Amino acid sequence: MLHSLRTSVRVLSTSAALSLLLAAAPQAFAATPADTLVEGFAIDDIITIDPGEAFELSTAEVTANTYSKLVMLDPADTSKVIGDLAASWTVSDDGMTYTFKLKPDLKFASGNPLTAEDVAFSFERAVKLDKSPAFLLTQFGLTGDNVAEKAKATAPDTFTFTVDKAYAPSFVLNVLTATVASVVDKKVATEHAKAMTPSADYKYDSDFGNEWMKTGFAGSGPYKVLAWRANEAVIMEANPNYYGEKPKLKRVIYRHMKESSGQRLALENGDIDVARNLEPNDVDAVSKKEGISLTSAPKGTIYYFSLNQKNANLAKPEVAEAFKYLVDYDAIGATLIKGIGEIHQTFLPKGQLGALNDNPYKLDVAKAKELLAKAGLKDGFTVTMDVRNTQPVTGIAESVQQTLAQAGIKLEIIPGDGKQTLTKYRARTHDIYIGQWGSDYFDPNSNAETFTVNADNSDEGKNKTLAWRNAWDVPKDLSDAGKGALLEKDAAKRAATYEDLQKKVLAQSPFVIVFQQTEVAGYSSKLKDFKLGPSFDTNFVYPVSK
Amino acid sequence: MSVIEATLKPYSREWLLSEQPTSRHQARLGRAYVIWRRFSANRLALAGLGIIILLILVAIFADVLAPHNPVQGDLRNSRLLPPGSAGYLLGTDDQGRDILSRLIHGSRLTLFVVVLVAIIAAPVGLIIGTVSGYAGGWVDAILMRITDIFLAFPKLVLALALVAALGPGIENAVLAIAVTSWPPYARIARAETMTFRNSEFISAVKLMGASPFRIVLRHVMPLCLSSLIVRVTLDMAGIILTAAGLGFLGLGAQPPLPEWGAMIASGRRFILDQWWVAAMPGAAILIVSLGFNLLGDGLRDALDPKEAGQ
């Protein structure tokens, strides 16, 4: 009796286990929902989604899809600027005052009306918060004291913007396409503002909602951000109040996936629709799969490593030059970045006005040793490099580590996630930093400024350009050349100035620029109209449908 | 009787196995011989010992054995070559470095970690355990609560926290693993100590006026050693895995060091198309861990017969 009871229990439990297995099996064929776009994307560099503070590449894509600006680049021809929120604009005869007329009946995702008041608030907020991207606006002479006067709403639908010099209008408009000029919902931001105690560093009694907007949303773009969870996902939903053409898909989810191979597997299994960080070997493999397409676009992003001039060894000009001879550009181009970039050594990416496509440096250990000997470092030295834990930078860092070793320089790699390495870089406590730089707006001045302007080289310096981050006290003739080009209305002359500047920077700067990125994405052929834009804030997802 | 003893040839099998050793020396050698016989009767244990000896030899002669430089590769010409390519028996990795040479040099790091952890953790555990077991009372209570605190965390999680605080690097990884692995040794030593703290031979030593310090050091510790050695040997596989785990997470050895766990981490990107980059160091870890486990099992059977049946 007991025996037979046991047998039946065994049969029961076995069949229960079997049915569980059977029930679980169909999950292997999971597909993404028909109204949702799921992208696999390494989003570990996002530290905030507040457009007044965000200055990271992945964030640029999120804010571009969720916030509107006065003007935007024409997706069809990026050399032109078209109105986004602005219906039209005029420039005064002296070239100093810009008047924007807003489109009628604009609304934020929250339902609040969008008026010139909000535009003025957004400018004031960005300038007063004075976070990393604030310099884009303050370069026009805006300060916390005069911003209310220089960027103001003269009527509910009219916004006037006064700059301090007669810049080329295309330059001003190009800058206004940057993330920092995104229009923020004044009501929502003010509701969530936190009281601050004014201090010497921060003179205002409110944080303008900055802390809340780190994860909160107050925009008017085609999508609204439902949630951002660090190193997990960004979830966006169609904004019913968007003034323009409604997005075709209801939801867009950016899933944090760091590994290229993980993204490839997920793409092949249909777990994600788009894989954004495919590495060369996975691009190769994916391109042979049926049902998966590839799209690519050259980006205004260059990968470089930079030598902090606070380090006594790295500050020697011969050492900086030696580093430029100690990168195996050809081998890196043929292997590590094949298909996702091409070797490029000047600071202006191919495609921008005046970009110089000379690549004079080659791996030359003997020459580098000679330079090191000249600098009194015949026996080499030890130095650290902060490396974000993603490809291709880790691969390049390891390759550079090997070539440096041939000249006696011992490179210690300090790995970290995007947040750690960037924070250290911005605090100027690194030795060598390897990373990428994406132009803030489509104008040569963006890169010229960040690479060659460093007005205040002290730790308190406000203009946190790349030159400042590496404590490079830029020779005056270099920064002046860039500034002069900014006011030059003749495009050919302007281009010539930039070309000359690039040659000098190439020779003197502590920046070793390695390659220019080509962004590749593998996507399911079910998607229609999936395209990558020419910059990180033009990777729009709203035209995509399934 | 003594006549028979006298006829035994010194160091012969009979001399070693004699029931009535005439000197301490003979008794010790005899005991060692018995242990060795018990150990060598176990084929698997011998295989384990063989693997470990091989590992040590490879580590010593790494410079001679490695066909290529483990940290310098030829990115342009020899990237991701499959196993069996000319000159690269086990293939090359994504930086064009020879995997075999990296494995050979990596054996040094593995041994370095294992030996250092054993040297740091085992004595600490032994001292804390024996003192706690012999002293009893509040000393025991305090020491064991501290041990409890360490045991309350999963080993790898605690090691991760420590490395994150100390900064990545192989020395810090060793330290972190050592800090997390002494508590079980303390527990074992304490349990063993408790079993003989009230036995007659300890009372006899006490009567002869030995200090507690001397009793613990000379009479308790030696008796705890054999079970400790077994436990440490069995744990070595775990230590290797933890070190590899830290390396895999980027918190152990830093590039370009050919640490096996870090090698797997860098190879996992290619696992779909170039399986060997991750599989080779994985196999190395598997074999060495297996070796330590087999050796530990054999040692337990030989040193600790009462546990062998369990």
UniProtKB/TrEMBL annotation, chain A:
Origin: domain of life: Bacteria
Subcellular location: Periplasm
Gene Ontology molecular-function annotations: peptide transmembrane transporter activity
Cellular component per GO, a single term: outer membrane-bounded periplasmic space
Domain Solute-binding protein family intervals: 80-457
Signal peptide coordinates: 1-30
Matches recorded under Pfam families: SBP_bac_5
Presence of keyword Coiled coil: no
CDD domains linked to this entry: PBP2_NikA_DppA_OppA_like_7
Example of a GO biological process term: peptide transport
Keyword annotations: Signal
Keyword Signal: yes
Major subcellular location class: periplasm
Family: Belongs to the bacterial solute-binding protein 5 family.
Protein name, entry field: ABC transporter substrate-binding protein
UniProtKB/TrEMBL annotation, chain B:
Claim: NAD is one of the keywords in the record: no
Protein name: ABC transporter permease
Family that this chain belongs to: Belongs to the binding-protein-dependent transport system permease family.
Annotated PROSITE patterns: ABC_TM1
Pfam families documented for this protein: BPD_transp_1 (PF00528), OppC_N (PF12911)
Localization, UniProt: Cell membrane
Bilayer-crossing regions: 44-66, 109-135, 156-181, 229-254, 274-296
Annotated Gene Ontology cellular component terms: plasma membrane
GO biological process: peptide transport; protein transport; transmembrane transport
UniProt entry keywords in alphabetical sequence: Cell membrane, Membrane, Peptide transport, Protein transport, Transmembrane, Transmembrane helix, Transport
InterPro entries reported for this sequence: BP-dependent_transpt_permease, MetI-like, MetI-like_sf, OppC_N
ABC transmembrane type-1 domain residues: 107-296
Membrane topology: Multi-pass membrane protein
Keyword Zinc-finger attached: no
Species the sequence originates in: Aliirhizobium smilacinae
Main location as per UniProt: membrane
